[in-house]
Design goal:
With about 325 residues, the chain is an alpha+beta fold. About 60% of the residues lie in helices and about 15% in strands. It is built from 10 helices and 4 strands, in the order αααααααααβββαβ. The radius of gyration is 27 Å and the shape is globular. Pfam families: DUF6534 (PF20152). Keywords: Membrane, Transmembrane, Transmembrane helix.
Length: about 325
């Protein structure tokens, strides 16, 4: 096999440039998280800190790999991917408590990490460029399992969100946004891993797949941070309105939409509306005498509270207990 600088060193150089740009985005996302979500559970903070620290080591390893066959970037990339995927699987578990699918997803994550570590170990044992075909099998397992895991997590979350049926505009808007975010989450890492796999299988004599793989850890970390930064604790929408009729006087309607998708509240979506309805008696209609508050002067009234629950509560535990250690 001839040594071509264009296909051996060129992709690695371009990969480090893309790596630097993505790492800048990652740092900005991390700064935003630490600045705006200081109240988050220590477990989320530990997850973010660990992912950023490992990804920083991975970035340095990428630069070193331009000059030496340094397998450290495979170890670190596999670890960062596992952390980001575990974050999303944990989110799915808190929403559904589906043990079978949750364990299946964690099994996929374990296999992917094993493939990444096996690939790195193979490169460490056989560092010569001409021996790179020895890493074909573990690398293929790593990339295929990574793609399957990302797509499976996205589909699982997507199906849960799509189960919610609502006639309220605010609820539909929130759910549509969560669906879009879930699709973006699943397609980010899966797309990069799929490109690496296809290029690697088509031509494993070049370093093009390696240069593309340099970006994989950054994409996973940015995806996780974007999910955490998208939450807005305590964000509520409310609406009020009144109406009246011959037999029904709606004295007030109050509704709210609670959104919880992160931190200590990252366990459910709760949507409910409550309407206070005043039903007039026939005596009140015939009298036709009303005070300023809508009640008749001396006739009894029948009050009924109508509660319409247009809700999806994906967790049986209280929100403040979802992430308790």
């Amino acid at each position: 096999m001839s040594f071509n600088l264009d296909i051996v060193l060129g992709p690695l150089l371009v990969g480090t440039w893309a790596n630097s740009a993505l790492y800048t985005v990652e740092v900005i996302q991390a700064a935003y998280y630490y600045r705006h979500f200081k109240q988050d559970n220590w477990m989320w903070k530990l997850l973010v800190s660990s992912a950023i620290a490992i990804d920083s080591v991975s970035m340095i390893a990428n630069y070193a790999s331009v000059y030496l066959p340094y397998p450290l970037y495979m170890f670190t990339t596999g670890t960062v991917a596992a952390l980001a995927q575990s974050f999303l699987v944990t989110r799915y578990w808190l929403l559904t408590r589906n043990k079978v699918l949750t364990l299946t997803l964690f099994f996929f994550i374990t296999v992917a990490v094993g493939g990444a570590f096996a690939s790195a170990a193979t490169i460490a044992i056989f560092p010569v460029y001409q021996d790179r075909e020895k890493a074909v099998v573990p690398a293929t397992i790593w990339l295929i399992t990574g793609v399957v895991t990302d797509v499976s997590i996205a589909l699982a979350l997507l199906l849960e969100f799509r189960k919610v049926k609502s006639s309220f505009k605010e609820t539909r808007s929130l759910l549509n946004r969560l669906v879009a975010q879930t699709i973006q989450t699943g397609t980010g890492g899966a797309t990069i891993a799929l490109v690496v796999l296809v290029v690697f299988l088509v031509n494993n004599d070049s370093n093009v797949p390696t240069g593309v793989a340099y970006c994989l850890g950054r994409v996973y970390c940015i995806t996780m941070l974007a999910n955490l930064n998208s939450k807005k604790a305590g964000n509520t929408w409310s609406s009020k309105g009144t109406s009246s009729g011959a037999n029904l006087d709606t004295r007030g309607e109050r509704g709210n939409l609670e959104r919880s998708e992160g931190g200590d509240e990252y366990g459910g979506i709760h949507v409910h509306r409550t309407a206070m309805v005043h039903i007039e008696t026939p005596q009140e209609i015939s009298r036709g005498s009303f005070k300023t508050n809508g009640r008749p002067d001396d006739s009894p009234a029948v009050e009924m509270e109508m509660t319409v629950n247009d809700s999806a509560s994906y967790s049986s535990r209280k929100k403040q207990d979802l992430f308790a250690p």
